[in-house]
Amino acid sequence: MAHLHFKHIQKQYSSTDGPVIKDFNMEVEDGEFIVLVGPSGCGKSTMLKMIAGLEDVTAGEFFMNGTKMNSIPSKDRNISMVFQNYALYPHMTVFDNIAFGLKIKKTSKQDIKEKVEDAAAVLGLTDYLHRKPQSLSGGQRQRTALGRAIVRDADLLLMDEPLSNLDAMLRIKMRKEIIQLHKRLKTTTIYVTHDQTEALTMASRIAVMNQGEMMQTGTPQAVYKSPENLFTAKFIGSPAMNIFEVFFDGSELIIGSSQIPISKSAQQMLAEQGYTQQKIYFGIRPENIHPGSLHAESFNIKVRVSELLGSEYLIDGDFEGFDIGIKANTPLQPGDNLAVSFDMSHAHYFDLNSEQRIDHF
């Protein structure tokens, strides 16, 4: 089991460079599946390496099961890690790759045999134990790396973008297998990815990171439905949330020549917080914009591109000089006009300067 507590963690490589991790605070309960998600260079892999003991903590404290881990060597942390490149030994069989950590710990041959065979059965590798990595598919290599991690019965499992080298179909399959494996093992897991789809589908809780800062933590549903800041709103969700700079006149949102009506409760909330006659950001997701006939509360969109997503089309267009993404059931041609209406019960509002969410209403 592993209960983790991170208090004001910072990482800085030199006094001349800014911190890679600025102030990371989080508590992880035993058995959780935490996904650290963010763009390349945001610090998520560095954070994982500090947890593993592969990087020193510059400042702050990291506790596991009540014990301060900052100065404890990596080999004594009882942590397993799965890397992006699998890190398999090419001259060893699948059996020996999975068994490697157990052999280092001087585990008995009988225990090794039982643990490896049990892991192989769970991961569908029983028929491949005699093979070497070069004869395996990408998915089989990834399962081998997972097998090596889980046989150690570690308190904590760390995964650093383990699916990024796989093709799209295999990534989907491996996502499901990792979720099922976690449900079976219930090992506390921290999973790093830049893919927000992986974060939404796999996590019990998401931690969104950007430029070394924690932007938001919460369940996938909470982070998707109630982003606390503009970065999270734009990063989480595919296609991305539409964001517009608008002027609140006290009753409507003004954007170009368009006036967007909002509810009385939204008017009151914005007015009470001093946003009357001020610019704010207004956000709405593509699924909450509905194509239809032109009427009093609809708006005209100029189509740029129509992309087939499978069962529907993603329309990229222009709305009062802003990019807008809309989902539609029929294709449209560049230059076409499309009437749309906004479901304002799903509207999001953000401060123009701080980019923080304006309180819920």
Automatic annotation (TrEMBL):
Pfam families: ABC_tran, OB_MalK. Keywords: ATP-binding, Nucleotide-binding, Sugar transport, Transport. InterPro entries: AAA+_ATPase (IPR003593), ABC_transporter-like_ATP-bd (IPR003439), ABC_transpr_MalK-like (IPR015855), ABC_transpr_MalK/UgpC-like (IPR047641), Mo/tungstate-bd_C_term_dom (IPR008995), NA-bd_OB-fold (IPR012340), OB_MalK-like (IPR040582), P-loop_NTPase (IPR027417). One of its GO terms (molecular function) is ATP binding. Residues 4-236 form the ABC transporter domain. The keyword ATP-binding applies. It comes from the Bacteria. Transmembrane segments: none annotated. The keyword ATP-binding applies. This is Multiple sugar transport system ATP-binding protein.
